[in-house]
Design a protein that fits this description.
This is Translocon at the outer membrane of chloroplasts 64-like. This protein is an alpha/beta fold. The chain has 22 helices and eleven strands. Helices cover 50% and strands 12% of the residues. It has an eleven-stranded mixed sheet with strand order 1-3-2-4-6-5-10-11-9-7-8, with helices on both faces. The radius of gyration is 31 Å and the shape is elongated. The N terminus is likely disordered.
Length: 590
């Protein structure tokens, strides 16, 4: 056996090879770093303290930072080449980055963000779009796309991103990793390029809840304590109903995990839209306005609209002067939105801030000090690469509907990977009140193993039920085919047998029965093919040999037909039809 290090490189090589094979269909070469990095650099931690002092809390870990964080001597590129060309290198490193290095971690580089960290799809035409390791044909999510990809591809242990309207949570969901957005205002934004002050929050990614928690304790500057169990876990049923095929699986995994860990009495189901309608009165100022031609919209969609309007307004306040003077090449997602009339009256801005304040009060009241809200991280799987859908206003709203709950309230949220559905990552999110960051990190650490276990059980149960259901349906279709055959309705019988085969393609009888109907119609080639399929599945299917022998005889394959009849006799020595057919062919072709 090779060394552990050699084996690791083999595994990494195989993983990369798999990605390369998959992306050949996309005609896109995958870079060794999956396109995650815009710059490689090295910030090394101080030497560890001598024993008996404890080592630094992040000793041995590596991390990357999104290209919105200042690093001394490096230009902060903001995901835009024109921005990089027109700005000087940073004179000092962001305090957040410095805290992590001082905590024992090594910074290895800067990662790609959406153009000016504005989008949510993760696509960037200036630096190319990082490859999503979990779903190479899909977008990685943004704005902190490269940071999520670097973690998902095991290039670093954790990474930093910026979350404005979902910039950490969306790529975490799309790439199948953990993504933590702390309470708004709890982590310093110094040395971080702004997008929208009302929402900007430093967040981080990890593949492991323990590392996620270790990073959190350094950045949040909170001590380790005995974890507190949640006394209330609220499942937002209306939010889970936004999902399609994975809704039951995901919500069941949450419910079963809570019951196993904390007891059924902790569970509570809530229609979050109805709750917020009653607790956020300032929403009424927006509900009368038309949205996309509709007079009324769901509360959560309305929140996303308000959030995005305020984000655009604040973004323009920060960067409009530079955009007008430099006239940079911008992603259409930005340019289209900046062309809209963003001259908001003071009263409108106050209304947006009122909704934000009331949202915080509403969620803090719902969750109190020891409550958790469970929702899906995103309402849809990641879009396909190059899809025009990501440019549409409707996609931008759908992608941020669920993230708006925390962006608008300032509460803390963690995106938790929960396996795959239809080859795309599935992610749920747990939310705690504003200031409940340590409680939330402790809770995800406690719950994650059981969440994984329950998700696997639910998936296997569902697969088993589907298999049983399909087999039952296939048998019903076969019986209908048999009745049609008895009624001499050959074509109708073929339709039913075909349906049975689609439901269960491993049943030899279905092919053999359809062959019998084909023989009655004189479709001998189809009959021979069906009998061959039946024999491949069941080498002792006498009827299939007899029917294939008949089809071959009618097609003029007399030698092969004789062999089929003789083999049927081997299986059933007293079968008169086989004996008569074999004898007839022997006399005709001695």
């Amino acid at each position: 056996m090779g060394s552990p290090q050699a084996n690791l490189w083999v595994l990494l090589g195989l993983g990369l090879a798999g990605i390369l094979i998959m992306t050949r269909k996309l005609k896109k070469a995958v870079k060794a770093d999956f396109g995650a990095f815009v710059e490689r650099l090295q910030l090394l931690p101080p030497p560890p303290p001598p024993p008996p002092k404890a080592p630094h809390p992040l000793t041995g870990l590596t991390f990357a930072v999104s290209d919105v964080f200042d690093v001394e001597g490096s230009i902060t590129g903001f995901g835009n080449l024109d921005w990089a060309k027109t700005h000087e290198a940073a004179s000092q490193t962001s305090p957040v980055v410095s805290a992590l290095v001082e905590g024992g971690a090594s910074c290895t580089g800067k990662t790609v963000v959406d153009d000016m960290a504005f989008g949510v799809s993760g696509e960037n035409k200036h630096y190319d779009t990082p490859t999503n390791p979990a779903a190479p044909a899909r977008t990685p999510g943004g704005s902190s796309s490269g940071a999520a990809v670097a973690v998902a591809a095991n290039l670093v242990d954790f990474s930093l991103g910026i979350d404005t309207v979902g910039g950490v949570r969306v790529p975490a969901g799309y790439c199948g990793v953990f993504g933590f957005r702390p309470s708004h205002g709890t982590v310093s934004q110094m040395g971080v390029l702004p997008v929208s002050a009302s929402f900007d929050t430093v967040g981080w990614f990890a593949k492991d809840p323990t590392i996620l928690r270790r990073v959190g304790h350094v950045l949040l500057q909170v001590p380790y304590t005995v974890p507190q169990s949640p006394r209330s876990i609220v499942v937002a049923d209306d939010c889970f109903n936004l999902l399609n095929s994975s809704a039951d699986r995901v919500s069941q995994a949450v419910v079963k995990s809570v019951e196993k860990l904390f007891g059924r009495q902790v569970l509570r189901h809530e229609n979050l839209g109805d709750y917020l309608s009653s607790k956020v009165p300032s929403l009424k100022a927006f509900q009368s306005e038309k949205s996309n031609g509709e007079v009324k919209s769901s509360v959560i969609r309305l929140l996303a609209n308000i959030m995005r309007t305020l984000k655009r307004y604040e973004f323009k306040q920060y960067h409009d002067e530079w955009i007008k003077s430099v006239k940079p090449t911008l992603d259409p997602v930005i340019s289209v939105q900046l062309q809209q009339d963003l001259d908001m009256a003071e009263a409108e801005i106050e209304n947006c801030h009122a909704v934000r304040d009331e949202m915080r009060s509403a969620l803090n009241f719902l969750l109190k000090d020891d409550g958790i809200l469970a929702i899906p991280t995103t309402s849809e799987p990641p879009p396909k690469l190059g899809s025009k859908e990501t440019l549409s206003e409707d996609y931008q709203i759908r992608a941020t509907m669920l993230t708006s709950l925390v962006s608008m309230s300032g509460c803390c949220q963690v995106a938790v990977p929960l396996g795959f559905n239809e080859k795309c990552p599935v992610s749920i999110s747990l939310i705690a009140r504003h200031g409940g960051d340590r409680f939330l990190l402790d809770t995800v650490q406690t719950m994650y193993g059981v969440l994984q276990e329950q998700a696997d059980i639910v998936t296997k149960t569902k697969s088993s039920k589907n298999a049983v259901s399909q087999e039952t349906s296939a048998e019903m279709a076969k019986e209908k085919g048999n009745q049609a055959f008895k009624d001499r309705q050959w074509q109708r019988a073929i339709v039913f047998y075909t349906e049975a085969i689609k439901l269960n393609a491993k049943n030899a009888t279905y092919y053999s029965n359809r062959a019998a109907a084909y023989l009655e119609l004189g479709s001998f080639i189809q009959a021979e093919a069906d009998c061959t399929n039946a024999i491949d599945l069941d080498k002792k299917n006498v009827k299939a040999y007899l029917r294939r022998g008949t089809a071959r005889e009618m097609l003029g394959y007399f030698k092969e037909a004789t062999e089929d009849f003789r083999y049927a006799l081997v299986l059933e020595p007293n079968n008169k039809r086989a004996a008569q057919s074999a004898e007839r062919l022997r006399r005709l072709f001695p």
